[in-house]
Amino acid sequence: MSDTIRFTLDGREVGASPEESIWQVAQRCGTDIPHLCYSPEPGYRADGNCRACMVEIEGERVLAASCIRKPAEGMVVHSASNRAAKARAMVMEMLVADQPAKTDAHDPTSKLWAWADRMGVSESRLPAHSFAEVPAPDPSHPAMRVNLDACIHCNLCVRACREVQVNDVIGMSGRGHTAKITFDFDDPMGRSTCVACGECVQTCPTGALMEARLLNEDGVRVEFEQQTIQSGCPFCGVGCQIDYHVADGEILYADGADGPANQNRLCVKGRFGFDYQSSPERLTVPLIRRDDAPKEPHAKLDPANPYTHFREATWEEALDRAAGGLNEVLKRDGSQALAGFGSAKCSNEEAYLFQKLVRAGFGTNNVDHCTRLCHASSVAALMEAIGTGAVTAPFNAAKDAEVIIVIGANPTENHPVAATFIKNAVKRGKRLYVVDPRRQMLSRHATRHLQFKPGSDVALLNAMIHTIIEEQLYDRQYVAARTHGFEELVEKVRQFSPEEMEAVCGVPADVIREVARDYARSEASIIFWGMGISQHVHGTDNARCLIQLALITGQVGRPGTGLHPLRGQNNVQGASDAGLIPMVYPDYQSVAKQEIRDLFEDFWGTDLDPKAGLTVVEIINAIHEGQIKAMYVLGENPAMSDPDQHHAREALARLDHLVVQDIFLTETAYYADVILPATSYYEKWGTFTNTNRQVQIGEPVVAPPGQARPDWQTVQEIATRMDLDWTYQSPAEVFTEMAQVMPSLKNITWDRVVRERSVTYPCDAPDRPGNEILFAESFPTEDGRARIVPTDLLPPDELPDAAYPMVLTTGRLLEHWHTGAMTRRASVLEDIEPEPTVAMHPRQLRTLGVEAGDMVRVATRRGEIALKARRDRNVPEGMLFIPFCFEEAAANILTNPQLDPFGKIPEFKFCAARIEPAAQPAEAAE
Ligand code: SF4
Ligand code: SF4
Ligand code: FES
């Protein structure tokens, strides 16, 4: 404790750590000191520019800014002396002089006005700025308003943008009286490179930057919350926690809460994407297909008017019809004629109940969900090598790494808050290598971007492994003590020298060697990967290579090291853990192992199918083959998310009976016989597990619309109509049952998750935090060692040729999540990215003879779509990138359904395509 600094604060002796400021010590001791340019939130450094926090220090002539001043041994500080209080009041009066009057304040509840009220300053005796000096209001952004007449130049938004979220858009331009906040090169905010994370709005203490929807046309706040409820974000696997501000049953705005994953940060989706919840297109009553509305494979329904094809029904009638159809097929054709798709957007409890219904009620393991389409190959490789499918370290571990590799992932778009922590780490001097055929925002921060040829992952990664082995950079002790299979790997990678692989992967041999050396030699290296790795016919091999890199160098199990596949949907980790997978029960326990099956048969009180079930794409194929005749789809949208969409939609239309449970009339619901209205994330209790293995509570924020019901209740209603004796009273009861068969939930109870809001698994004791970094000593395999599985070159399934000379790759956009069912109904997100585009290199546009914004036609062997061309220097020549969220030009009409043999994941990231100008020119889409 010799580091503790003892000093006197307001007559009381207190202790401070060397990092603490006087303000922080005072706060900790219960003394509130005014502050405006300082934010105590994580990630903000003190700047000491507003002087609102001045205190008196004995022996010093001038007052000190307590937010930035550190205490010294023996110092005597008076936080509320007459002199300090008067000086602070004068500062406040000067600031108020330059503000619009409180009656016209953009935000009369802002931090500035709250402190002014507490200090008794309601107006100023000092002259105000002349109007000419004040920048005009900027209404250019769909989500945020800029009213710089309220700006006090505190610089917090600049730090928010540059240092916390590291987007580098906001700056301060000019000097003295001409100083002002600017976006890029003094552009209107809406035309700048702003990514709308809203961090600046959350931190601005005056209302100069605010959510547009709270203001009237004069820029005055007219919407105020009645309550604030903390819950989570429904979009990606980062698992941000959010404070939702609610009035009259409606979400008004969202602020980042201090969850372990996000530490107050949000991205555009979490902050501005919530209003899909109140979309007029929400399903509010159960629906049954009309007798005069046969299923057409390529029908396009209007989600705002389901009554062209469906009629309203009571819950009783709809549930009876839904379960009746399933029972009929079960009786007539047997268990293997049934299948279910659950969802990675549902809670852990809903996922568990759904797979239990399919296994115990349908009598089959034909249950899967969209993990099959994103990280199934990563999970297959991880399970094979280290006996678990989850990450070995959280993404926040980037701060402890020396070298960070991001491969086949675009986190600034797909996991934006995770990306901020990677950028923070780079700012602190860590080395970042981005490895991807497409360049991206993160490349600007990277030590190097390795732009390898699409589909040549194994060549590049094996060449890195070759270098590490050839140059003896591997960790002998670790390899000997912790792995099997190293000798086979040595043999295999002999043929993969960087010099030979250069021609295959397009990365110069010396660069491959340099990155391999840096990764192996660094004190701590961590790898993040995404669907660029997994969505290939060689996706499992790609992931195997990454695992080998970590294993042979011992870069796992210590702070700053590890393997982290960035999980896609908000609960894809949890849904997989809960058993929404055809070959395993909850916690990845194999359905094929007799002793495990015995356990579950005993626990669920029924016989279970001993055979692994079919996966997502296999189920679609089995419908075509006439095996699967009826399905229950809960929150999944295979008509949009599956490859070769015409094939998938034709399958859905062929089903004898389809039950869809969802919040919107999705493209899959077009083919339903019965539609059951579900609750959105914001309307229910449940636990959700993010990419970091953090089990987090989701709490209802608003009421469900109309007759929509929580999914767990509806699944139970179907189950009881299929002779299952279920009497669950709450999600808490379901969680308690799950914990009995899921070792990963040991020491984690529902009450604990509600109380702590987030608990990481695995967890050693009920009163201890979970383990963030895993496998320091051993792996959860039979003998505790990891298994190395060498890999060979396997080309993509469909290579470009004369007829289809381009490579098509697909993915997500920052603003739109997955199939767009939610984000395309979120007004701000749709405003920013309203239409489908195909991105390509500027030289490609020239070769094609089109301008950005012109209509083009993209075709593959499975179909064609027309959409606007977009100029994007990040896309290499010869490649096209199309997001898969736009129904009007659905990318998955084009994609190749060929599967990775282990993960059974389709090759979304690579197929041969052709592009040509289309007849209709249109306006610019840049
Ligand atoms: S806009 Fe707000 S946060 Fe930015 S400098 Fe002005 S007052 Fe501070
Ligand atoms: S989409 Fe992901 S990164 Fe963005 S706020 Fe939600 S959880 Fe966080
Ligand atoms: S809050 Fe300390 S100087 Fe502004």
From TrEMBL:
CDD domains per the UniProt record, alphabetical: fer2, MopB_CT_Formate-Dh_H, MopB_Formate-Dh-H
Broad EC category: oxidoreductase
Key words, A-Z: 4Fe-4S, Iron, Iron-sulfur, Metal-binding, Oxidoreductase, Repeat
The 2Fe-2S ferredoxin-type domain, residue ranges: 3-83
CC per GO annotation: membrane; oxidoreductase complex
GO annotation terms (biological process): formate metabolic process; respiratory electron transport chain
Stated name of the protein: Formate dehydrogenase subunit alpha
Lineage: Bacteria, Pseudomonadati, Pseudomonadota, Alphaproteobacteria, Hyphomicrobiales
